[in-house]
Specification:
Helices cover 51% and strands 15% of the residues. The protein is of the alpha+beta class and 354 residues long. It has two domains: 264 residues, CorA soluble domain-like (Beta Polymerase, domain 2), CATH 3.30.460.20; 65 residues, Magnesium transport protein CorA, transmembrane region (Methane Monooxygenase Hydroxylase, Chain G, domain 1), CATH 1.20.58.340. Strand 4 and strand 5 form a beta hairpin. Helix 4 runs antiparallel to helix 6, helix 4 runs parallel beside helix 8 and helix 8 runs antiparallel to helix 9. The model has no long low-confidence stretch (mean pLDDT 86).
């Protein structure tokens, strides 16, 4: 299967808005967690039936619904009808290969993102899809698996510190996206350390394993870049959009988040260029090594050409060669050959060919 594109055979020929789960099943059954919060208190519960989610909320109370597992199409369809999420957006929620983007309608905003995690043990980047639906008094998050990506936000919410329990759902969505962007930077740093550790090996060694490692790192960098670069478009849209869902006070936090995203994109660009440089250095080293080998072989061939000539002359089958009857012909021949070879080596050395 292609690393950068998931097969869409399941949806081939289906009309737009068809709800088809495309991805790997990472949970046996989907789970729903409900969090109700306001300035004074917070409560959490596991939802076994969507009827347990209140239709109306007390004034000042906000709701966070976290759905774990995307394979339950019926559950997601019912949530879509309950909160007026268009079928096209539900289709994208179920497609775990969806490109990060933002979708807007009259009732809500939906942000599609990726969780990225670089795992040094296997030297690969793994990821899950995250969809965040923002409404007037609620946030719904859809995750592929029962993961703890948003635990830092839950801890802040339970502590009661900061703006989370006082601000609206748009600020909660900002905090969730901010947590993901922070994880991008941390994972880029971890990947970057692995890339930088290759420098000495690339400069001083020529091994097949080194080339394989460079290509592996380059693939990881491309995968991260593919999934974080669209966030720049999302932030531009949010900052320029006059949606009633985004409170003006949240805009300043979004600008700060935009700076973090720019930092992450700059970092991944640097590491992409670094892997390109490593490839160029590796191939240059291979070329230099080949040149060195060819130089040595050429020098040896150059030395043996006159020696072969001398040996050829004295190896001819003519009876009357003047030097054949001379007592010291053989050692003289060797002496001449050694002098010629030494003279050529000295000449090569003075020309800096050796």
């Amino acid at each position: 299967m292609a690393k950068f594109l998931r097969s869409r055979k399941q949806s081939e020929g289906a009309p737009p808005g068809s709800l088809i789960f495309m991805g790997n099943r990472k949970m046996e059954t989907s789970e729903v967690k409900l969090t109700l919060y306001n300035k004074e208190k917070i409560s959490e519960m596991q939802v076994t039936d969507l009827s347990e989610i209140p239709e109306k909320l007390p004034e000042g109370t906000k709701m966070w619904i976290n759905v774990y597992g995307l394979q339950d199409i019926e559950l997601i369809e019912r949530l879509g009808k309950r909160f007026d999420i268009p079928s096209l957006e539900l289709e994208d929620i179920l497609n775990t290969d969806q490109r990060p983007k933002l979708a807007e309608n009259e009732k809500n905003l939906t942000v599609f993102l990726k969780v990225l995690e670089y795992r040094p043990a296997i030297k690969r980047v793994a990821g899950d899809q995250i969809s965040i639906v923002i409404g007037d008094n609620y946030v719904i998050t859809f995750q592929e698996a029962l993961a703890k990506y948003f635990d830092p936000v839950r801890k802040r919410m339970h502590s009661g510190k900061g703006r989370l329990r006082q601000a609206g759902p748009d600020y909660l969505a900002y905090a969730l996206i901010d947590t993901l962007v922070d994880s991008y930077i941390l994972n880029i740093e971890t990947l970057g350390n692995s890339i930088e550790s290759l420098e000495e090996e690339v400069l001083h060694e020529i091994k097949k394993e080194t080339l394989q490692e460079i290509y592996r790192m380059k693939t990881n960098v491309r995968l991260i870049s593919k999934n974080i670069r669209p966030l720049k478009e999302i932030m531009i849209f949010l900052l320029k959009n006059n949606s009633k869902i985004i409170h003006p006070k949240t805009i300043n936090f979004l600008r700060d988040l935009q700076d973090l995203i720019a930092q992450a994109i700059d970092a991944i660009d640097i590491y992409y260029n670094m892997t390109n440089d490593y490839l160029n250095i590796y191939h240059a080293n291979v070329g230099n090594r080949t040149n060195d080998v060819m130089k040595v072989l050429t020098i040896y061939a150059s030395i043996f050409i006159p020696l072969t000539f001398i040996a050829g002359v004295y190896g001819t089958n003519f009876k009357y060669i003047p030097e054949l009857d001379f007592k010291y012909s053989y050692p003289i021949m060797w002496g001449v050959m050694i002098i010629v070879a030494a003279a050529m080596l000295i000449f090569f050395r003075r020309k800096d060919w050796l």
